[in-house]
Every structure is written in C-alpha cells, then in structure tokens.
Amino acid sequence: MADPLLRQVLPVDAEQQVVPGFSLDAVGDGAAKKADGVIQKYRGRALLVATGSCAVNCRYCFRRHFPYADETAARDGWAGAVASIAADPTIDEVILSGGDPLSLATPKLAELTAQLASIPHIRRLRIHSRLPVVLPERVDAALLQWLSALPWPVAFVIHANHANEFDASVDAALAALRGAGVQLLNKAVLLRGVNDSVEALAALSTRSFAAGVLPYYLHQLDRVEGVAHFEVPDDEARALHAALAARLSGYLVPKLVREVGRYRQAPAVTP
Ligand code: SF4
Question: Is residue 1 in some structural domain?
C-alpha cells in the first residue's frame, strides 16, 4: 500500500468515510454545463466530454461520480456538442476530455475533429489523456496520423503523478507524440502518500522533462466524496510548491492550482 503507483488505484476502506466538504460534484461540472457533454468554466475554452470510458480507475478521480450515461457528447453523433460550440464565437479552444478521449477508437476521434474543423473560430485543440502513460501501446500509427493531420496546434496534456510512471515504453510513446507535432504538458494531482514531498515532486518534474514533457499543473485534490484520505492541506501544498520552486529551474515548476467554478479566471491556490 505504500507503493505510490498502487496507492493511486487500490480501493481502500477510507473511501467509505463521509467527510464534510467532500461532495458528489466538487468542481461544479453540473452548473457549468453548456450542452450535453460540453462544460464551460473559463472564457474562451469549452471542455468536451468525449467519452465516459477510461483505461484506469484512479481512486481520486474528480469525475468518479459524473453522470457519464447522460452527459457524453458522442451520444448524438456529436451534433449537439458541435452545435453549441459553433454557436459561441468566443470559444477558440476545445478541450477533449472524459473519461479519457483516447478510449475512443481513432476513427471516432477523426469523426469528431472533422466536425469541429468546420467551426472557424476554433484556434487550438487540447487533449487530456492518461493513456500514453498507462497504455503506451495506444499511441499507434493511426493515432499519430490523425494528430499530424489536425488543422490546429495541439496541446497534449498527459497525467502522471510520480516519476515511476515513466519507463522506456512510455518514453517511446511520448517521443512519437512529439514527432506528430503536439506540445506535451503534464498535469499532476498532489496526493497524500503518492507525491507529497519535495523529492517526489522534483523527481516527477525532471523525469517528465527528460521524456519531453513540460510540467504544467500541480492540482490540489478535487474534493469529491471518497477521496479525503488523499488530501494535502493548502498550507502544506503552498510550502511544498515554494520548496520546489527554490530547488528547480522555473520551467520545471508546475503551477499550483485548484479547479474552481464557472468563469473564475485565477487559480484559487497560488504560491
Ligand atoms: S485517468 Fe483521469 S479520468 Fe481516468 S480515472 Fe484517472 S483521473 Fe479519472
């Protein structure tokens, strides 16, 4: 149970504890719904819940209670989601999320992006996926071809919380993604017992960079029911982040953030 990788996926009794302040929808997804499968919390960016499927079952998952059966953009062949984005010219970035969007077959992803390509005000695509880290085989020739042919610059945000999540097969998948022209970034979650030390966070940043991935965000835990045992208090998080900044070059220090509600511009937790 002390293993930082096992701890992320092993169910434990502590998940059953009811803890005040932890709720089913801690990040306000319901209130930020724009259309079925489309969430907008920040100006200019719309998040598309491409699928409810994911290759992992992270025990701290922020959408572990999300009603995927009702809220998946793919349900009507993307029509409703694409129409809602097309109707709002202030949106210039679409974020493919989930679940994990790479759980979809590549032809399905291509079907979606072909529809998005008809919207002139989209300038960037962002993809959030943990699959290159947990299932590097998913980065195959068809996926790379799809990425290479996209009409927008692509930010590809992987999700690794510990340096031990990288190995040679992950490095190869990430190198192939870079070869397809995407900008690789890493989003990590600060998790008690996984990466709650300066040493672990520094190792994660330097290992990510060695694999061609810039540290992007260090998220404070989203307070969904069943995850309280992973929480690191804000004061401790700020202290860890300050110590990390004192140790590493600036480009290796991710922003410390907390997900907040609709249209808030600034991270709620900063150093
Ligand atoms: S990879 Fe992301 S979506 Fe999938 S279970 Fe983990 S946190 Fe949730």
Answer: no
Model confidence over 176-211: pLDDT tens digits? 999 999 999 999 999 999 999 999 999 999 999 999
Domain span holding position 42: 6-257
What number does the ligand 1 atom closest to the CA of 134 have? 1
Ligand 1 pocket, CB under 6 A: 54, 56-58, 61, 63, 98-100, 130, 159
Number of domains in the chain: 1
List the alpha helices (DSSP H) in the chain: 6-9, 79-86, 106-116, 131-134, 141-149, 168-179, 198-210, 234-247
Q: What pLDDT does 67 receive?
A: 65
Instruction: Specify the CATH number for the domain of residue 16.
Output: 3.20.20.70
Q: Judge whether 143 lies within some domain.
A: yes
CA distance 99 to 96: 10
Residue 264 belongs to some domain of the structure:
no
In angstroms, the CA 103 to CA 116 distance is: 19
Tell me if 263 is assigned to some domain: no
- What share of the chain has pLDDT > 90, as a percent? 73
Tell me the CA–centroid distance for residue 246 and ligand 1, in Å.
30
Strand ranges of the sheet holding 214-219, from the earlier edge strand across to the other edge? 33-35, 38-42, 45-49, 93-97, 124-128, 154-159, 183-189, 214-219, 255-257
Which residues on neighbouring strands pair with residue 157, listed in sequence order?
128, 185
Residue-wise pLDDT tens digits, 2-48: 799 999 999 999 999 888 888 877 666 666 788 888 999 889 999 99
Residue nearest atom 7 of ligand 1, based on CA coordinates = 61
Query: Whose structure tokens read 């499927």?
Result: 53
Is the pLDDT higher at 201 or at 259? 201
Which among 54, 57, 104, 165 is the best mutation to test ligand 1's pocket, defined by most ligand atoms within 8 Å of the CB?
54
